Structures are given as C-alpha cells and as structure tokens.
Automatic annotation (TrEMBL):
Transmembrane segments: none annotated. This is 6-phospho-beta-glucosidase. The active site is at 364 (nucleophile). The lineage of its organism: Bacteria, Bacillati, Bacillota, Bacilli, Lactobacillales. Keywords: Glycosidase, Hydrolase. InterPro entries: GH (IPR017853), GH_1_N_CS (IPR033132), Glyco_hydro_1 (IPR001360), Glyco_hydro_1_AS (IPR018120). It comes from Tetragenococcus osmophilus. Belongs to the glycosyl hydrolase 1 family.
Length: 469
C-alpha cells in the first residue's frame, strides 16, 4: 500500500511579523520589543532601537506580501501561519483605539491568502509586544497588561474571526523562562530575574491566554484556539535513575505550560517546585476560574531534542533555539550546533497525544543553513539538498506518528521564505524554500528566487506526501 498523509492534512509554512514584515514605523506602528533586540543576544536590549538593523526592513513582506503569497500558492499551500504585530494594532499597547491602518494591512493579507484558497493561522503574540508596555509597565510582570492583551485580542477576533479559523495565543510561551525580555518584555536576563517575578509574569500570560480563549469562543464559537509551546523532548543521558528524574524535571519546563492550557489548572508538581524554591505568586480565585477556559488543540515547534543528566561531568551543553541542553552523542549537528533528530518529532507527537488526547499541529520545523545563490540555466537558485534531506526525514517521522494513531492537523514549515533569524538576528541563517536577496550587511535587492526545495515541497503537497517514500 502506498504511504500518504490524510487528504485533509494542512500543508503550509509559518512566518513571524517581526522577522518578515519590516516597515517598523510605517502606517502608525511604533517600536516593539523585537525592535529592541537587534543583535540577537537576548540580554542585549537597545532602547531606543538603533538607526539601522535587519528587522527594521526584514524581508519587506509588508510591501511584498502579494508576490510572496503567490509563490506560496504555487507550492500548493493550504495554510499559512502568520503573526500579527501587536504594536501595529495598538502602537503603545495602552491606546484607547486601534490603528486602522494596521488592521487593514492584515485584512489585505488574509484576503490575499483567501484568493488562492489558503487558510490563515494567526498567532497573536509572537515574541513581540509594544515596547512601551515593557519600558513603562514592566512587561508581563504587570497584571494590567492582561487587560491590554484582552482588548487587543478582542479587536482581532471581531475583525477577523469570520474568515480565520485557527488561532494561537502566545508563541513558544515556555521560552519566557529562558528569554524573559524576548518572551515577556522583562528587561533583564533570565538569571537576573527573581523567580517569583518571572513566574508571576508567566502566570499573567497563562491567565491572559485563557481569558482571550474565552473571548474568542464567545465571539465565534466555530473558531479553533490553540496554545503553542517550544517542543524539545528530553532523553535521559543514561539509564541511571537520577538521569530519569532529571529528564522528568526538564520535560516539565514544557509540559507545565501545556498542562495549564489543556487541563485548566496548575499541576501539583508546580506547587512543590514553588515551595522548594521559595517562589511566591499572586493567584486569585478569579484567575483560577479564568484558567478553566481550555484550548481546542495544541501546537508546537520542533527543531531538536535534548538530553538530561544529573552528572555534572557529562553536562556538555548544545545550543538550541533560545535554550541549551546536554548534547546527545548519537546525533549530528547543523551549522549552528542544533542537533538533528527526526525521530524526536515522532516521539514528541506521541508524548503530547498520549498525555492530552487533543489534536496537534506542528507549526514550526526547519533547517537554518548558509545558502549559496547560483546561476543555473539562466536562472538563479539554491541547491539545498541538505534542507530537503532534513525535512524529508522529519516528515517521514510525522507520518509514522499519524500511523501510531496521533491526530495531526497539519504542518507549517519554518519559514517558507528566508526571514531574519530570531536567535541570531541575521540573514545568513536561512530557512526558506524561497531565497531573498538580503544580507547581514543590510544590502540586497529583496528579489525572490526559488530554491531546489521549492519544487520538492510542491511535489510533497501535490502527492499528499507520497513523494517522500
């Protein structure tokens, strides 16, 4: 029997506003927290943002969206995950009225997608909030920010929920623990933030996520609202029982966030953790009621797996997407030191589905690499066989998870077009099926070129994945 993915499987790609749009101060938008991280070093916050930096123009999706969406349609996309820039809608975050020009831009993008039969998936907060909320309110440490986010989300739901089915609240919400400014607008490195302050900010985000889930369902009961976590499964470094317990603790840095979103309450293990680490947070009875508004599905990013060990002598760190962990000696690494583990995505899918029995959506997965633009038969392209190999291996494992009985809604690769990378803030690290002529020095024509992987992914989608086998 020929292997294939379900006919209803949603194939596509994912981008973030602050890494793709540019137009940092255009049409009423003001600075975001992402603008204050131009160097890509999460503790190196620059306020006000410098005169020139890559995200200021990014790959100019703001002015090229029609061209880019046409290319996505040519590949056969069924869905595109985008994020909405909060400061494009509420420039300061605490404004009384939304910015109509910002709202109209996303109307235009969503309508352009619909023209080609492509669904939009919207992330409401993708590592970006109005910078004003960070500098004047302390970011998510301040309970007032919940109200600002509710107002922002309600504005989006009322404007777009009649034409957008899939919604995500916070991107990789668990990464607030590792990059608090990036994730929560807290102006310090993770090791500098008191844990009570850090987990209070996390609590405010969890309450806000549940609250806007309730708001969204009240406005349109037919929409699907999900949470989004950075999915990096942990393996024990050895069969030593101490390594198993360490793995359990490390896994809970991710699972805690999914537990609250799915089960509507804090898991018991967190109360022990709070007590043993003298962490005090304010959690009102009203908060507990709000948290009961649970999500319809779980989405996650997957780039690599990690190891855990209680043995300090074996604690050799491997850099990943924001966080680092112990290296796995059985895995190869990308140019950026990210370990490559296709089977880990099958394990992650089974782990989450066994735990929650909710539909899953893989909303980020891809390979960042240095791509060389070459001329071939009078046209420019990139021979990115390494990307094809990486993605093929991961998609084959997703198929295996579906065969295991896991309900997988879809897959949006990160990112289908080259964008400014988040973790290192440069163009040299490219993910796309489409090459954008822009470089680390800020130079380039912004022209788009199809890579070899463009036609490969087009065939994967056209054949429902049969071409993978």
């Amino acid at each position: 029997m020929q292997k294939s993915f379900p006919k209803e499987f949603l194939w596509g790609g994912a981008i973030a506003a602050n890494q793709s749009e540019g137009a940092a101060l255009e049409d009423g938008k003001k600075w975001s927290t992402a603008d204050a991280l131009p160097t890509g070093i999460f503790g190196n916050i620059v306020i006000p943002p410098p005169e020139n930096y890559l995200k200021k123009e990014a790959v100019d999706f703001y002015h090229h969206y029609k061209e880019d969406i046409k290319l996505f349609a040519e590949m056969g996309f069924k869905i595109l995950r985008i994020s909405i820039s909060w400061p494009r809608i509420f420039p300061n975050g605490d404004d009384t009225e939304p910015n109509e020009a910002g709202l109209q831009f996303y109307d235009n993008v969503i309508d352009e997608l619909a023209k080609y039969g492509i669904e939009a998936m919207i992330t409401m907060s993708h590592y970006e909030m109005p910078l004003h909320l960070a500098t004047e309110y302390g970011g998510w440490t301040n309970r007032k920010v919940i109200q600002f986010f509710e107002k922002y989300a309600e504005t989006l739901f009322k404007r777009y929920s009649h034409k957008v089915k899939y919604w995500l609240t916070f991107n990789e919400i668990n990464m607030t623990l590792h990059a608090p400014f990036n994730g929560a607008g807290i102006m310090a490195d993770a090791e500098e933030v008191d844990k009570s302050v850090l987990y209070q900010a996390v609590h405010h985000q969890l309450v806000a996520s549940a609250s806007v889930t309730k708001i969204g369902h009240s406005i349109n009961p037919n929409i699907q609202i999900g949470c989004m976590v950075a999915g990096g499964p942990m393996y024990p470094m050895t069969p030593n029982p101490s390594d198993m317990i360490e793995m359990m603790h490390k896994d809970r840095n991710t699972l805690f966030f999914a537990d609250v979103h799915v089960r509507g309450k804090y898991p018991n293990y967190m109360f022990r953790y709070f007590a043993e680490n003298d962490i005090q947070i304010e959690m009102t009875d009203s908060d507990k009621e709000i948290l009961k508004n649970t999500v319809d599905f779980i989405s996650f990013s997957y780039y690599m797996s990690y190891c855990a060990t209680a043995d300090e002598d074996l604690n050799i760190q491997s850099r990943g997407n924001i966080m680092s962990a112990v290296k796995n000696p059985y895995l190869e690494e990308s140019e950026w030191g990210w370990q490559i583990d296709p089977q880990g995505i099958r394990y992650m899918l089974n782990l989450l589905y066994d735990r929650y029995q909710l539909p899953l959506f893989i909303v980020e997965n891809g390979l960042g690499a240095v791509d060389d633009l070459i001329e071939k038969n009078g046209e420019f392209t990139v021979n990115d066989d390494y990307r094809i190999s990486y993605l093929s291996a991961h998609l084959q494992q997703i198929y295996e998870a579906i065969e295991d009985g896991v309900e997988v809604l879809g897959y949006t690769s990160w990112g289908p077009i080259d964008i400014v990378s988040n973790s290192v803030c440069e163009m040299r690290k490219r993910y796309g099926f489409i090459y954008v002529d822009r470089h680390n020095d800020g130079l380039g024509s912004f022209k788009r070129y199809k890579k070899k992987s463009f036609d490969w992914y087009k065939e994967v989608i056209a054949t429902d994945g049969k071409s993978l086998f």
